[in-house]
Amino acid sequence: MSNRLPKMPLCVLFDDAYLYPFLIAIYSAALNRTETFSLVIGDTGRNLSPKTKELIEIFCGILEIPFKWFAIPLDTSYQRSFVHVPPLAVGRLFFLDLMESPFVYSDVDVLFLAGWDEILLEPTFSQTHIASVVLHGDTDWIQRINQNRAVEGLPQNQAMIDNENEYFGAGLLIADPQLWRERGFNDEWKEIYKARFDELGLWILEQDILNYLLKGLTKNISVAFNYPAQWREHPKNYRTYAPGEALPIKILQFQGNAKPWNYSEQSRAKLFLKTQDFFTKSAGTVERSTYFLIMEFWLYENLFWHWASQQNESFFEELKTIHLGIDRKDF
Fold it and tell me: Facing residues of 103 across strands?
């Protein structure tokens, strides 16, 4: 493994509640890296406790991952939320406002699999390409939501209407912040958030704002770099995208409010049995379904714990305390 730093850092923003998936995600990134990568971790002064920050510093030190804390000026006036998306989510826009050079932003409810760090190689940006994105994929859902809003007499989502089939997810973003600022988006997004959000029918916080502002200014990259492991409410997901065997997944994201680390042992047993049923119904033809995507997280979770058990005892005990604090659910 070379010591050459890639051109772009990996930026993340999360709170204490997402410390556990962050640890699994970054461990998977370290396990599957081809060379050194660096982290930029957003710090609002409220999202991460001193104890959490201390553990992150130890964790990154052991894995030899260079990182820095990055001040995110997200004050208490930013209070909008959406279903499971908290007010903190809009804070990722401050990376665009304040970073000096191009970067990759990723959510932390992900696994970084083989080939993931290809995303860190800087693309050629231009006045008509200031960001690279992954398309959302489910345009039928977008159209259905706006149709329902029209029936209810509510403003239709202009970000979704304007972008139509080009609407993208915000879980992964590669951007040039200088080009963002040259267009004045660093001021415009705040004005939209505080004064025009409802008028424009926006609702998915920073994702809608990004889609509204960046219309015609993005390039699409492979869904392999933000492959959605949606399940339950989205049973057609693995048929919407190419199966894993045809399209190797490089970054797997667990979208929605049902997360694999929250599943109880009983739920894990149920999903295992469902997997066996899937094998039976498939008559021996196995594609990478949602079941297997969930289990992939548990595989890396087990690899993480094997690694953690070999580290300093006090560090290991602190990790176990975090694990015991997770709110687990059955389905």
Answer: 175
Q: Give the count of alpha carbons within 13 A of 98, CB side only.
A: 15
Select the more confidently predicted residue: 214 or 291: 214
Phi, psi of 32 (to 5 degrees): -110, 10
| pLDDT tens column, 76-120 | 999 999 988 899 999 999 999 999 999 999 999 999 999 999 999
Residues 231/237, Cβ–Cβ less than 8 Å: yes
pLDDT in tens, 16-41: 999 999 999 999 999 999 999 999 99
Distances (CA, A) of 7 to 97, 103, 120, 186, 313: 19, 8, 7, 23, 36
Taking the CB of residue 220, how many other CB atoms lie within 10 A of it?
11
Angle between helices 265-281 and 290-308 (to 10 degrees): 140
Q: How far apart, in whole angstroms, are the C-alpha atoms of residue 130 and residue 123?
A: 10
Which domains does the chain show, CATH number per domain? 1-122+222-331 (3.90.550)
**Stretch (H or E) spanning 67:** strand 67-71
> Of how many residues is the chain composed?
331
What CA–CA distance (Å, rounded) separates 63 from 163?
40
CA neighbor of 238 nearest in space, from 287, 298, 169: 287
